[in-house]
Design a protein that fits this description.
The protein is built from 5 helices and 14 strands. The chain has 294 residues and is of the alpha+beta class. It has one domain. It comes from Desulforhopalus singaporensis.
Length: 294
């Protein structure tokens, strides 16, 4: 029985691909017109100002690859963009027009997911979301998202669901990990102008433009700590409000490399009557503010 099913599935995929290729060749399929149609459809679906695709190609037996996919979104007087080197779309199992597997290359890393579509209910759901080794430096250099240097590798996993008419008003949960990161600070933190992080991790819950951050923790040569709070988004990138609190614990590396500041840190620890320093983060994602809690 299993062998018969496998054989039938293989034959169906083969015939689908063969028929598709023959039909497109016969009618001399206008690739440029199809590319324009895809660009407009994706822009409308994702509420972007513009969508650009360098090339579209067919993948046997029933997939398509988009090369050089760029989404452009206005941000006040400026323009934001998001680029994928490639995006592969293929049917997710037997639900040909209701389930699709996505496989993308972006910023030297990869991301995969399955999208489930409810056409009647105008709903969508992303499951099995997973991102690996996405280079934050490449992302920031290319998109110019943050006015400071940042590096490291980003990993993430989770799920997300929403409505086509308001795609960013949905709900999702996930986990984020950053490894081997360095973040340039706008203002010195305990005299540090560059924060190096061996690993940072947190759980995320997004609902209606409010991102809750829980069980956050990070460790590095100079500092380790924990954090939690929320980030509220107001529609355009850069328009956000941070409300994050946490604790910092200076490490042996900090005291060794910064002996002149060691006494100040010890005085602060005595002041807070603890082995850690409480902190608060406000401002926005693009321009955060940081202060030790009173």
């Amino acid at each position: 029985m299993m062998r018969a099913l496998f054989s039938m599935r293989t034959v169906l995929f083969f015939l689908y691909g063969l028929v598709l290729v023959i039909v497109l060749a016969y009618v001399r399929f206008p690739a440029d017109d199809f590319k324009t149609y895809c660009e407009k459809s994706l822009a409308d679906l994702l509420q972007a100002k513009e969508c650009r695709i360098m090339e579209i190609s067919y993948l046997f037996p029933a997939g398509v690859r988009l090369q050089g996919l760029t989404l452009v979104q206005p941000n006040g007087g400026a323009v934001d963009s998001f680029t994928m080197q490639s995006l592969k779309i293929s049917p997710g199992g037997w639900n040909f027009w209701r389930s699709f597997d996505l496989d993308t290359s972006l910023y030297e890393g990869t991301a995969t997911a399955r999208i489930m579509l409810d056409w009647k209910g105008n709903l969508f759901q992303f499951t099995q979301i997973e991102g690996k080794e996405i280079e934050l430096a490449r992302w920031n250099d290319q998109e110019q998202s943050l006015p400071r240097k940042i590096s490291g590798l980003l990993f993430f996993s989770g799920r997300y669901s929403g409505n086509f008419s308001t795609p960013f008003e949905g709900e999702g949960k996930g986990n984020v990990i950053v490894q081997d990161s360095a973040i340039e600070l706008q203002r010195p933190l305990l005299t540090l102008s560059l924060l190096t992080i061996t690993e940072a991790e947190s759980n995320l819950h997004y609902r209606g433009r409010l991102l809750s951050v829980t069980e956050g923790k990070f460790s590095g040569r100079d500092l380790r700590g924990d954090f939690e709070g929320d980030i509220e988004f107001f529609g355009q990138k850069g328009r956000s409000a941070l409300n994050i609190t946490g604790n910092l614990v200076p490490q042996a590396g900090f005291f060794k490399d910064h002996p002149d500041e060691a006494e100040l840190v010890r005085e602060l620890l005595i002041r807070y009557n603890a082995h850690q320093l409480p902190f608060e983060m406000g401002g926005s994602v693009v321009r955060p503010t940081f202060s030790l809690a009173e």
